[in-house]
Design goal:
binds uridine-5'-diphosphate, alpha/beta, about 375 residues, 6-stranded parallel β-sheet, 7-stranded parallel β-sheet, 13 strands, binds uridine-diphosphate-N-acetylglucosamine, single chain, about 50% helix
Length: about 375
Amino acid sequence: MKYKEAADVEQKRKVMLVFGTRPEAIKMCPLVNELKSRPGIETVVCVTGQHREMLDMVLRTFHVEPKYDLAIMKDRQTLYDIATGILTGIKDVLEQEKPDVVLVHGDTSTTFFTALAAFYQRIPVGHVEAGLRTYNIYSPYPEEFNRQAVTILTRFNFAPTETARQNLLREQRDDRTIYVTGNTGIDALRTTVRADYTHPELQWAADSRMILIEVHRRENLGAPMERMFRAIRRVSEEHPDIKVIYPIHMNPAVREIARAELSGCERIHLIEPLDVLDFHNFEARCHLIMTDSGGIQEEAPSLGKPVLVMRDTTERPEGVAAGTLKLVGTDEETIYENFKLLLEDEAAYAAMSEASNPYGDGFASKRIADILERELEDTHGTLGI
Ligand code: UD1
Ligand code: UDP
């Protein structure tokens, strides 16, 4: 064996993971820790800091220390702020590290602009949670654009489900680039829910049916969010046997609407965002969840918790098919009626409370690491798209 070839064989493959918001961190940290356990892989973490406090909470929980932090977050940032912050900050990081592959997750602005920056340097991109679609470019906004655009330049599509794979095939993606792995969010859930868990807020709600709220989507800011909160407040005032807990997202625009519509009701607690370990345990113990969040739609089916999804579209049809999720839109009366129904009709509630596993068995990170180990080794790090 020539000297150069021997050196190539011994050289570790460098995998860089880039993420910036709470949900990306929750779903990428299990993968970071899995990749770190592989001797043939050098794992480098770069966070964009699109979120700050909510990102740092997750990093602490999973003991992940980024090598780079672009720290781009601004108060009430616009989509332009995030775009320019990432493109400016990540160029030098990619030039310096020259990774064999850059992994991004899902559909945030961090996801799209990081993938674009990697493409500009001809670095192969791996997309974790690839293939989710609503095919409505404004719903969710701007996430549907982000994930579709990332697909065009992705070399490794890690699709969580067969449905996601079929979406990618319909868009003429090469089947050899698609791997059905399950969702790494379920990997996280496997490590957080504990039988002996307790929390003061859960003790407060212990004598009632506990309703968990998480609402934050950009397209719902303003009137749609006001309608959701009004419906929740009306039902809460009419049902003395429920208590509502809403760990409010740190977006000040969300907080203003939540406080205006929901404060002053003694059975509704507006609290700070929960650590992921706490939130998962709250989910496991609640009666039902009302949300516009994406990740929660994946977690609830395996916990057997009914979710009223306050959106017009969902990219998670597997949870709807499983019966756990119901899409109720953002109309006040429709949310009010569906919320009441689940509280008052035992059969309707029971039909939505069957636990199921459409998003995987909790070993998605292991599968992704296996694939990367194999593929990067085969090609000696010289992958094209
Ligand atoms: C972002 C993602 C969205 C994802 C959501 C998860 C984009 C365009 N949006 O939306 O896809 O579903 O994260 O939560 O990528 N803030 C803080 N501290 C934090 C986090 C946010 O103060 O730790 C405040 C800041 O004022 C910030 C604002 O919230 O400007 C909005 O954050 P941003 O990332 O722009 O939007 P999200 O609605 O969080
Ligand atoms: N989550 C959390 N603390 C909270 C609320 C939610 O850790 O107070 C977790 C939740 O379990 C899920 C993820 O955050 O894993 C969802 O993130 P978010 O709703 O911010 O974004 P989306 O999934 O809609 O992109």
